[in-house]
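User: My advisor asked me to double-check a structure prediction for Myosin motor domain-containing protein before group meeting. I don't want to rely on an old file, so could you generate it fresh from this sequence?
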Amino acid sequence: MSYVDGTAEIDAVTKLLGVKSTRLNEALTQPSIKVGENVIRKNQNMQKTVYSAAALAKVLYERVFRWLLEKCNEAISENTKMITESIYNRFIGVLDIAGFEIVQNNSFEQLCINYTNEKLQAFFNHFMFVREQSEYLEEGIRWIQTDYALDLKPTIDIIEKPLGLLSLLEEECVVPNGSDHSLLQKLCTNLAKYPEFKKAKHSQRCQTVRHFTIKHYAGSVDYNIDSWVEKNRDVVENAVLEVMGDSTKSLVKKLFPPGNNFAKNNEINHFHGLLPHYLRVLPIRAH
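Assistant: Sure, here is a fresh prediction for Myosin motor domain-containing protein from the sequence you gave:
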């Protein structure tokens, strides 16, 4: 069983959030759950309480960030009504992301960056070649219909498909006693049939531990799975969400609506109705 040793920190946080210190304390250390018609409290151990507090911090940051972006879009739009009805009717957007990344110790952060680049590269290939094909057809030039984005699909599938990497990671984060070792076993079992995924071979000369390799469009990357489950734990207890939803601060209350119906966006889906232009930056390496 965990408990809060001293109230100075939680009092300061709850004052800013506009919630009662005692309620948030109980929601983090002894969250209530409904079993049938009864409501009971479960005693969290220290590790689960720390995970719950960290998950709340992540969710709060994400939702404030999205809210801030919406306010920026409203502020620079000459027609606020257009924003609410169809934000993508008329706008100029700039997407600047980190490029494909391979470092000495590739962890969950590198996987997220490389997955994003994989998706954008597939979109780029599809858009550029489909547009080129349409021009050839209009001019009567013979052309073999090919979707070059499909070349990247196997790698994207092993990451995002059901029983893919992200799905198995989410599952491991919610099951009791989920661990990185168990996740690695599930990945090797479920993804072994894909040529783009391989269990890494250890080398005495390598300073970092490599657990598995994924073949990306820019090259193969060896990943270390240590701390992936901990990094991805973001399950917020319903009791915590209820406390936040009862905040006296209007913004906090808006960020935590009843039923946890806060909107989530899949930005890549919005790109397909747009007219994109590309600027590819080639890094200059000094040797």
